[in-house]
Amino acid sequence: MLHPDPSLKRGQKVRARGAGSNRSGRFEAHELVAFDDGWAGEEEDHLLRTEVRTEVPRSALSYNKSPDLPFDRSINPYRGCEHGCIYCFARPTHACLNLSPGLDFETRLIARPGIEKVLEQELRSRNYKVGTIAIGTNTDPYQPCEGNLRIMRNVLAVLSEFRHPTAITTKGTLVERDIDLLAPMAALGLLRVGVSVTTLDSDLSRKMEPRAPSPARRLALIRRLTDAGIPVRAMVAPVVPGLTDQELEPILSAVKEAGAVAASWIALRLPLEVSPLVQNWLQTHFPQRAAKVMNRLREMHGGKDYDAEWGRRMRGQGLWSELISQRFDKACMRVGLVKQLPPLRHDLFSAPLRSGDQLSLF
Fold this sequence. Notes:
Elements: E1 12-13, E2 46-47, E3 51-54, E4 61-63, E5 73-75, E6 78-79, H1 103-107, E7 108-111, H2 115-124, E8 133-135, H3 146-149, H4 151-161, E9 166-170, H5 179-187, E10 191-196, H6 202-208, H7 215-227, E11 232-239, H8 248-258, E12 262-267, H9 274-285, H10 287-300, H11 319-335
Parallel strand pairs: 1-2, 3-7, 5-8, 8-9, 9-10, 10-11, 11-12
Antiparallel strand pairs: 4-5, 6-7
Helix pairs in contact: 2-4, 8-11, 9-10
């Protein structure tokens, strides 16, 4: 379909993408608008395609001090994500690259080849103290381009060699490719995987997460990982009040049947540029529900589209947040899902010997 949005070039076609806009980010001094002055003549229609650029990584580990997160360090093999989930809270990070959090986020990707070598140097540092590394908490490490680039696989090879505790979050089925690395780590208590399941409705998923695997395929992924001995936490995220919240119990039953042992939920978050993108998406696909969804979200965030305060940003507060939380707790108890998995082992971590290293006598 030809999009009339002024941020798109004339003749540009957008297919199977989440965002319908490519407006400039908040750091840009000017808003770029495509304008036909009549001099260009006829242009052929062209499809917006994914472009992958590379970045030379100077560091591998990113640290945080957020009390909302169960980890203090993470690795991001990619910036941007081709899955194109309209709700992705990481979209605003593209503005820091002078790119749009809209279509640029899902079509102009940054890959970080060689990050595994930087990671190995950081893990060998005498000052390094082991702690669970989270991967996939910003953008998906198993998005389509990973199939060719194999950056995530190289990172996993290093973490496996160091026996490092690792927690992966993904909705990408490419994770199945790496079961040969993941299963032995899981057997040692070093690894778990979180798989996000937003809806069981394939049509809704196609609109909301246009290039991500279907809900049925994600359930099959949970089964495949579980059968390999890898503990899986199902992430019902985000819960969109007024749109997907009625699926909470069916999703939890489905992921339990697929083999998940734990579950968690997070409400829809609308930081910075995400809010107008989601509101435009709602008006395009669900105009009759748009007002209801936004009103519920504002009730959960003190009248605002989003409250970024620690302790409130993940689930909001108030009546609707409490109701969803109570329903989630009761459903987990009924089907037999726990909310927390045992901590990963840290005592097995050790730097492997390199060529030329002298063996210890003791």
